[in-house]
Amino acid sequence: MREAPLLDVDAIDVFYGDFQALFGVSLTVERGQVVAVIGANGAGKSTLLRAIAGLMQPRRGGIHFNGAAIGNAPAFAVVKRGIALVPEGRRLFPSLSVEENLRIGGQSGRPGPWTLPRIYKLFPVLSERRHLPATALSGGQQQMAAIGRALMSNPDLLLCDEISLGLAPIIVRDIYAQLPAIVGDGMSLVIVEQDIAQALKAAAQVYCLQEGRIALQGAARDLTRDAISAAYFGV
Amino acid sequence: MTEWLNVILQGVLIGGLYAMFAAGLSLIFGVMRLVNIAHGDLIVLAAYVALMVTQTLGLDPLTSLLLVVPAMAIIGYALQRLLLNRTLGDDLLPPLLVTFGLSIIIQNGLLELFTADSRKLQAGAVETMTYQIGTGIWVGLLPFIQFAVAVAVIAALQMLFYRTALGRAFRATSDDQSVAQLMGLDTRHVFAMAMALSLAVVAIAGVFLAVRSNFDPAIGPARLIFGFEAVIIGGLGSMWGTLAGGVILGVSQAIGAQIDPGWQLLAGHIVFLVILAVRPQGLFPKVSG
Amino acid sequence: MSEQVRYRVEHATRSSRIGVGLIAIVLMVLALAPFWGDRQMLRLLAELLTFVALASLWNLLAGYAGLVSVGQQAFVGLGGYLLFAMVILAGVHPIAAIFIAGPIAAAVSIPVAALTFRLRGAYFAIGTWVVAEVFRLLASQVSVLGGGSGVSLPAAAVIAMAPTRQAREFEIYWLALALTVLVLAAIVTLLRSRHGLALTAIRDNEVAAQSNGIDVTRVKLIVYVLTAFGTAMIGALIFLMKLRISPDTAFSVNDWTAFVIFITVIGGIGRIEGPIIGTIIFFFMRQTLSDLGSLYLLIMGAVAIVVMLWAPKGLWGLIAERYGWQALPLQRHLVFDDTAPRSRDKRA
Ligand SMILES: Nc1ncnc2c1ncn2[C@@H]1O[C@H](COP(=O)(O)OP(=O)(O)OP(=O)(O)O)[C@@H](O)[C@H]1O
Ligand SMILES: [Mg+2]
Question: Disulfide-capable partner of A82 in A156, B117, B208, B264 (CB 3.0 to 4.6 Å)?
Fold first, then answer.
């Protein structure tokens, strides 16, 4: 018998007020797997991650994590179960220093391999600037801090929303180069990217969202360029 | 000359009390952008709680703080969880009107329970002890204790805000509520903790107010205004600025009163309005990083 | 010539046409009150009318312009004191004094706004309260007007208004009715004007209004000044009815702000009908609960909190939503009009 997936999103509908952003979206993530979610602007990628993280509650459908239903759990409870989100646009706390931003990531108190020294080993530049306010970091450093902050909660599942957004390609390459070190511990990963090539390289499984619906899914190596661009642009 | 020095010194000392009024107000504004119109009435409520504690248990007022502070903190936590959290959002009106309604409820509830009579807490010998610190310059022990406590309260709040996990949670929640939730912070709890802390400070301020002068159910709004003026004079978001604001207000009132008793409050308000006119960001605004 | 869809902009709806008819009848009945009501009734109605006016003005300020003031007692008291000063010190006729008090208060409100507008949101509210306190303290320094203990209107000036007490009471009652109708009409006119559209835009979304070229601060300033104008006239009238003024009654936050806010919130903030409904409920509660003393105020506070949290649009909001009623025509809507004679195209 197959082991149950770590995360099982089952046909969720998500609304902003009266506006429906997701229509019956389903997605599964196995333990240790890297899954990419791609799609055009406004397709609903961030909404999907926010729903998984508990910032929004789906009106219909369910979300199971480690076998427990978390569809109606608030975000602060979801993170304690082991899901961390690196939000779109990084959103570090401007009133906190770099180190405080990392420490507050560990606020939920989950034990595990990720500690302050290990984050500093992964991203040495953060260690040098630990006492500066988060706003004093460059864009790439802020992204490192945002990833580090999420890792500090020792999640079983890490959700990354467009970590390459607004960064120079060389910095994006650096950050993606660290992914294996992160996933090495058996952590699962969902990455949302506009940059399809980057996503296909990093992920085993790919989902393509289009106007709130899953337009395509499959193993990264099985998907053709044409199929993807058809699903992406809806042509 | 020494007469004026005495006046200014008294003003500085009462400024400590105003700083405590202000600190609680500033704290919750900083964390959740809530302006609590009932703040002054809660100070008066604390004074009445202290009155009951001292009368029923026979404690002296300063010892009663051991009970009054936790009692007010619990009231604050419950108030925020049960009522005020529901008012928070983009709209300005609900928190304002709900705390305004609360102010009326507290005033009239106290009136119903304790009548409009003036009360005072008796602290015994400390009230009358004075020390000469220079030729012709005297400091009362009680005002001195009160000022020292105010400085300690401000210092403690500053420490808490910048050196503890709770303070970090306050600042993070104030920056970005939804990301704070992603860190495992239940923002409803964080807000309730902020209100609990605010009312703990209110409790200390209320007890010193009650020892220092007469009080009755109607004096709350004026305390709110003093606290508010100290916050604005000092500059929003700065704890030490709050102390400076309180002292400036206290000294202005003392000088006004020395000129003409009718000018005590007016002098304070006028200094506030002048500072608002020439330096609306306050004297010591928080430098944003 | 192209076929065009004809339309005109209308304010009226079916319910508002009925509403206008009803209003006319109510006004008639009110105008005739001296002939059907006794003295006590007249006094009560006059007081009720002044509260309708004060609450409508506050509603304009807070509900439409987003300026939540808890210091409107500054202008009630200022109006009252201006009336007493003009009558006592300059021998002005009391009724003339009411109409002079308005523009003076409007002028005073400009520097007040210059200061208080520096404070945002809820801090603005407390700032306005400080100003009212300053006014109160200044009033108690004016010894020719009785200082802290206040002063009565001289009998000669009272008698000069009308020879008999009854005539005076009729006169004051009609004055209250006229002023209240005037204030309401002015508010409706303002809301239906270009500024009214700007106000609605500001109420709905201040940032968007700003970026659409509306000078938000200017519109707010205009509303603030006009509100001070009206509030001071009503304040002058209130203290003409009371015949006595003192700093504590003139600048009372309970009487002129707390009650007014509760009336507006309970009736429905941001709606023209709200303050009217609210005042009727308020007076009803006052008549039935006033035996309870301070408990009655406590209940008022609790009711206001409950309404704010669970029915934030107030009683009129609930009614209007359920039945689509609208007594005073304010919203614009388009009426497509095929039967109207086709007028010429602009180029024709
Ligand atoms: N706070 C909000 N209120 C209302 N609608 C929203 C809100 N946030 C997003 N939407 C709408 O929901 C839809 C999905 O948005 P979402 O942010 O999930 O897209 P996305 O795929 O992440 O896009 P992007 O690539 O631009 O980040 C869009 O149509 C967007 O306009
Ligand atoms: Mg997105």
Answer: A156
